[in-house]
Amino acid sequence: MAWTYLFFAGLFEIGWAIGLKYTHGFTRLVPTVLTVASMAVSLGLLGLALKSLPLGTAYAIWTGIGTIGTAILGIVLFGEPATALRLVCVGLIVAGIVGLKLVS
């Protein structure tokens, strides 16, 4: 169950990271409330996952999921560059997450 908590914690991390862009510096109420709620859910789920997963592994995977999702959504939603090197680097993060899962 800890891995499921960690996966969803990572998804909510993507939500709050993307949400920050929509808050316009915390000047828009609804995006700000949703972003703060995503932060709370993400941290809460991470805390549940940490009951049985090693801290270093869980934190690295949590941030990795957030990084990958945020990078992909930045490309899709905000027109950020999708250069080959950038995509290779995202692939390396995926490889790191898979590696950590396999050794944990």
Give a written overview of the molecule:
The structure is a single chain. The protein is an all-alpha fold. Helix content is 84%, strand content 0%. It has 4 helices and no strands. The protein has helices spanning 2-23, 29-49, 55-78, 84-103. Helix 1 (2-23) crosses helix 3 and helix 3 packs antiparallel against helix 4. The protein is flat and about 40 Å long. The protein starts with a helix and ends with a helix.
Rounded to the nearest angstrom, the distance between the terminal CA atoms is 14 Å
Q: State the helix count.
A: 4
Compressed to H and E, one letter per element, the order equals: HHHH
Q: Which structural class is indicated by helix and strand composition? A: mainly alpha
Largest sheet features: none
Estimate the strand proportion.
under 5%
- Radius of gyration from the alpha-carbon trace, in angstroms: 14 Å
- Tell me the overall shape: flat
Helix content: over 70%
DSSP strand tally: 0
Mean pLDDT: 96
Please mark out the parts with pLDDT under 50 across 5 or more consecutive residues, or reply none.
Answer: none
